[in-house]
Amino acid sequence: xxxxxxxxxxxxxxxxxxxTLAMFERYPITTFFAPPTAYRMMVQExxxxxxxxxxxxxxxxxxxxxxxxxxxxxxxxxxHIYEGYGQTESVLVAATFPATPWKPGSMGPAxxxxxxxxxxxxxxxxxxxxxxxxxxxxKPERPVGMFQEYWKNAEATAKCHRGDWYITGxxxxxxxxxxxxxxxxxxxxxxxxxxxxxPFEVESALVEHAAVAEAAVIGKPDALRGEIxxxxxxxxxxxxxxxALATELQEHVKMVTAPYKYPREIEFVADxxxxxxxxxxxxxxxxxxxxxxxxxxxxxxxxxxEG
Length: 307
Fold this sequence. Notes:
- This protein is α+β, with helices and mostly antiparallel strands.
- It folds into 3 domains: 1-79, 3-Layer(aba) Sandwich (Rossmann fold), CATH 3.40.50; 104-185, Roll (Luciferase, domain 3); 190-304, GMP Synthetase, Chain A, domain 3 (2-Layer Sandwich).
- Helix content is 23%, strand content 26%.
- It is built from 7 helices and 15 strands.
- Strands 5, 6, 7, 8 and 9 form a 5-stranded antiparallel beta sheet that branches.
- The N and C termini lie far apart (58 Å).
């Protein structure tokens, strides 16, 4: 299409919000794409002090973008963050387009040429509003841009297909207007005392608090509940970790979401593990908890909620 792609190779060092924002002034970037984690870090900066002379369109994907981050970005830059959903195995399959009404927290309806649905274990579509597996119809015709198979891995290929559907591995729901609402990776969903809790909703609630710059939520094994919700929190500048702040954050999540979703344990950390593309590596945090359980050691900066 004759489009130029600008790539900043930042391998070998941590993501730098200020350096990234300065690039909008130095280079004629028109369309900006970044994972939500990067946006969450950039809105901690004084966005109005930077200039965006050529910027026209901003997108986020990889996981859901917190509505409060979208509002902060729009207030600071004048641009909305349009959410999209796709995988390595596909092209863009769902999105909030400029002509699509925005629903805060939703990743929008299916992209043209794709039939998306929420399906159950039997491969049947679930009722609107019910959580299930996000799936793309691949029979009788496979959408343009969908992968054919996992190379030399027939078992993995078969595992992600259920009837007429390709199972993405993500959990979501669909409302009456066919907008999709992301819950989390199937592996990330927390099962606590018969409740299924998506980590993103808890993370989003935590990030709403002025003291929180970033948050990652996992399920921590628990003998009584199966799992408890545990949050790893990076504090915003000017805030100090304490048991009192941990309790305040727990109460905040209870009010914003539901009492059973609050993190029973909060650990304050300097940063969070991320992939090279900026996605949270919750699997690394879960492994860290498993390692700790094998050889428990006291940790600094941890706030324990009530039992």
